[in-house]
Design brief:
Structural class: mainly alpha
Family: Belongs to the amino acid/polyamine transporter 2 family. Amino acid/auxin permease (AAAP) (TC 2.A.18.1) subfamily. Belongs to the amino acid/polyamine transporter 2 family. Amino acid/auxin permease (AAAP) (TC 2.A.18.2) subfamily.
CATH superfamily: Hydantoin permease
Helix content: 55-70%
Membrane topology: Multi-pass membrane protein
Number of domains: 1
Pfam families: Aa_trans
Shape: globular
Order of helices and strands: EEHHEEHHHHHHHHHEEHHH
Distance between the termini: 59 Å
Strand order of the largest sheet: 1-2
Strand content: under 5%
CATH class: Mainly Alpha
Radius of gyration: 23 Å
Number of helices: 14
Protein name: Amino acid permease 3-like
CATH architecture: Orthogonal Bundle
GO molecular function: symporter activity
Number of strands: 6
Length: 478
């Protein structure tokens, strides 16, 4: 790479000499082991990150917007997400798309293309969302699904009139313990199998929700809902804003896009492969979102539940609902890890750079695990990741209404990470002239998404204020 250089956008950067193996059959051009990711592994990771249990709220979101606006908003966000993701994927390498310097993380891409204060803003938004918007929300959603399984079996055994109240805290702790174990998987590229399992599970519960919706339509013989959705009272206007936020959050995966792209092999260029993976995954998720949202709305109309599976009752057919909720739990195990790996990597990389001679931080202890082979145990990784999972688990038990707060964080995340930074980085990298037609179109897109984000934030704040009125920490039961 040559001598140390000062880049006006990046500041001082220490160049690390490439090992002699760089660019050989076993190593990539940056000296790392050959990446092996393909369109399909990237698609599986994207689907794992995108299709979460939030898909089950799309029937409720469609009910707030109606038959016209509901599907239109889903299609709009799918297009925006696909387009801005292609812009972001073009920023994986700085300069030449084949031989340019790699940006290993989203923050690295912002540093290379924009620099300055924007790097800190990007890092703050990204890592706060990984902490609050992903880790805690996934923990809460998983515990709710485990509680739903327990309750459905209780109703089946004692009848639908039985109280069957279940405390969610033991299930929240169980999910946390499992994540402590999974969090010791060292690197992002070693999660490919977990991503595939999680993607299969997401299709499983989405398909069950879709199938039950179709069955209910056939049973009643009517397609419910209206063209404009619910009546426009003040409270319901806020709910419409929340619905738009639910849909926007359902498409958001930009905060891990660069990290996923960094697992891809080349040639062809990583950007080309990522564009194909983005098209496959966004098209697939949009199809599922449209089917689940529209069929759920057709089945329940304006009374569509926030979680589609709960609308079918807990006891008939209880076993199918149990399978769907179990699939949600398994999916969230994988989605949690795929989503928080960038945060893990950031903290560990920063610690190694600051304390390069610390044995606690840098030393790996090698030992063999029967069946699984050798494993490198790092004490800092063990302590830090375990502490992270414990903290997020405790917060999940303290704030049982956190899903509405996550809607607020999702809205705050959508515009900067999915739209603003990809647009600004692409303009900088491609040197698009200011006030040119292309520049104006990109800025109009960014401004329109900002306006939508502001409306969604307002609706989410109203929901959080409503939740705080009945808030009781550590006393969540269903």
């Amino acid at each position: 790479m040559g001598d140390n250089q000062i880049n006006p956008r990046q500041g001082f950067e220490l160049s690390v000499p490439m090992p002699p193996e760089a660019g050989s059959k076993c190593y990539d051009d940056d000296g790392r082991l050959k990446r092996t990711g393909t369109v399909w592994t990237a698609s599986a990771r994207i689907i794992t990150a995108v299709i979460g249990s939030g898909v089950l709220s799309l029937a409720w979101a469609t009910a707030q917007l109606g038959w016209v606006a509901g599907p239109a908003v889903m299609l709009m966000f799918s297009f925006v997400t696909y387009y801005t993701s292609t812009l972001l994927s073009a920023c994986y390498r700085s300069g030449d798309p084949v031989t340019g310097k790699r940006n290993y993380t989203y923050t690295d891409a912002v540093r290379s293309n924009l620099g300055g204060f924007k790097v800190k803003v990007c890092g703050l938004v990204q890592y706060l969302n990984l902490l609050f918007g992903v880790a805690i929300s996934y923990t809460i959603a998983s515990s709710k699904s485990m509680v739903a399984i327990k309750r459905s079996n209780c109703f089946y055994k004692y009848g639908d009139k039985a109280p069957c109240h279940v405390n969610s805290n033991p299930y929240t702790i169980a999910f946390g313990v499992a994540e402590i174990i999974f969090s010791q998987i060292p690197d992002f590229d070693q999660l490919w199998w977990l991503s595939i399992v999680a993607a299969v599970m997401s299709f499983t519960y989405s398909s069950i929700g879709l199938g039950l919706g179709i069955a209910k339509i056939v049973e009643t013989g009517t397609i419910r809902g209206s063209m404009t959705g619910i009546d426009t009272e003040t409270e319901k206007i806020w709910r419409r804003f929340q619905a738009v936020g639910d849909i926007a959050s359902a498409y958001s995966y930009s905060l891990v896009l660069i990290e996923i792209q960094d697992t891809l092999k080349s040639p062809p260029s990583e950007a080309k492969t990522m564009k194909k993976a983005t098209l496959v995954s966004v098209s697939t998720t949009t199809l599922f979102y449209m089917l689940c949202g529209c069929m759920g709305y057709a089945a329940f109309g304006d009374s569509s539940p926030r979680n589609l599976l709960t609308g079918f009752g807990f006891f008939n057919p209880y076993w199918l609902i149990d399978i769907a909720n179990a699939a949600i739990v398994i999916h969230l195990f994988g989605a949690y890890q795929v989503s928080v790996q960038p945060l893990y990597a950031f903290v560990e990389k920063t610690a190694k750079q600051k304390y390069p001679h610390s044995q606690f931080i840098t030393k790996d202890i090698k030992f063999r695990i029967p069946i699984f082979g050798s494993y490198n145990l790092n004490l800092f990784r063990l302590v830090w990741r375990t502490s992270f999972v414990i903290v997020t688990t405790v917060i999940s038990m303290i704030l049982p209404f956190f899903n509405d707060f996550v809607g607020l964080l999702g809205a705050l995340r959508f515009w900067p990470l999915t739209v603003y930074f990809p647009v600004e980085m692409y303009i900088a990298q491609e040197r698009i002239p200011k006030w040119s037609t292309r520049w104006l179109c990109l800025q109009i897109l960014s401004a329109a998404c900002l306006i939508i984000t502001i409306a969604v934030v307002a609706g989410s704040i109203a929901a959080v204020i409503s939740d705080l009125k009945i808030y009781k920490p550590f006393k969540t039961s269903y």
